[in-house]
């Protein structure tokens, strides 16, 4: 059934919707100045009735997003049929989305733009939390393997110099089985805290899975990186000495960040394997990019040769 509202009825209906909606509805002139708005605009710190001149649309928007908002205002004023929802941070705080439509007089001449704004802060906060969760190890709160790979890719793409250090808790599975998963989880959290306290402020820490941890160390050479990592190895050995039936130690492999992620990780893993093969609880520096083998190696066992072939 078609309902025909009179002008007064439509005005009353608009007022009812405007006063009881969280949406902010306002009208801009052709230059982008706000000339009228629903009371909800006060939520952005704008008390329009008390102002001699209304604020400009740009005044509501934080940062570089103001340019995109004005492009959309111009498109709406020129009569673009498909209005878009644009998201932006507000100058008063929070995130909003806005949609605009052309206003025309009886002769069809555009004289302004009608805008609808609504808060999306709660959704943006949830999205940020989900994004963080996707890139965070839930046990240690360090970044996970996905984030580590992306960060290493970024460093390599920008030609950054530095080192990658891989840490591995020795005999972790034995400790986990003997003392239980709760004790194993506590050990992993404790080692993550130890890394955070003993590495540099600019270093980037990740848990790659299991008992394997990675530290991206920008702007450092391998020898200096080893000097940072050795106290970590010594501290974990000292903390674990005498407190468990079996020794609590960690091993570490260090290598320069190279020209590819795969090659850098491969060389760090070879250095870590070398540290374990030489008795564990130590730091070994891997070969520089282009070198075929680590310079120093223990006697070649069958397992060692198999490992080399797998990463050749």
TrEMBL record:
It comes from Novosphingobium aquiterrae. Transmembrane segments: none annotated. Its EC number is 2.7.7.65. It holds the Pfam family GGDEF. It catalyses: 2 GTP = 3',3'-c-di-GMP + 2 diphosphate. SUPFAM superfamilies: Nucleotide cyclase (SSF55073), PYP-like sensor domain (PAS domain) (SSF55785). This is diguanylate cyclase. Residues 160-288 form the GGDEF domain.
């Amino acid at each position: 059934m078609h309902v025909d509202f009179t002008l007064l009825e439509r005005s009353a209906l608009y007022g009812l919707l405007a006063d009881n909606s969280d949406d902010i509805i306002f009208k801009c002139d052709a230059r982008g100045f706000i000339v009228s708005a629903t009371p909800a605009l006060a939520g952005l710190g704008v008390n329009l009735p008390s102002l001699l001149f209304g604020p400009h649309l740009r005044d509501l928007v934080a940062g570089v997003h103001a340019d995109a908002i004005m492009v959309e205002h111009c498109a709406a004023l020129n009569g673009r049929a498909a209005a878009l929802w644009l998201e932006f941070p507000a100058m008063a705080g929070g995130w909003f989305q806005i949609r605009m439509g052309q206003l025309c007089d009886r002769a069809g001449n555009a004289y302004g733009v009608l805008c609808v704004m609504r808060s999306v802060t709660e959704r943006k906060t949830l999205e940020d939390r989900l994004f963080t969760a996707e890139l965070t190890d839930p046990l240690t709160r360090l970044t996970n393997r996905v984030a580590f790979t992306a960060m290493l890719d970024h460093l390599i793409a920008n030609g950054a110099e530095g080192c990658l250090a891989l840490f591995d808790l020795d005999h972790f599975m034995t400790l986990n089985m003997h003392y239980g998963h709760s004790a194993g989880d506590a050990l992993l959290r404790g080692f993550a805290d130890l890394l955070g306290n003993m590495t540099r402020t600019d270093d980037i820490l990740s848990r790659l899975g299991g008992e394997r941890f990675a530290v991206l160390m920008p702007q450092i050479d391998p020898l200096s990186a080893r000097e940072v990592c050795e106290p970590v190895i010594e501290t974990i050995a000292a903390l674990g000495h005498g407190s468990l039936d079996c020794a609590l130690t960690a091993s570490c492999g260090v290598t320069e960040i190279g020209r590819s992620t795969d090659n850098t990780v491969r060389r760090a893993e070879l250095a870590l394997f070398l540290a374990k093969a030489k008795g564990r609880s130590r730091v070994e520096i891997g070969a520089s990019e282009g070198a075929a083998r680590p310079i120093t190696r223990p006697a070649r066992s069958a397992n060692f040769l198999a490992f080399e072939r797998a990463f050749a």
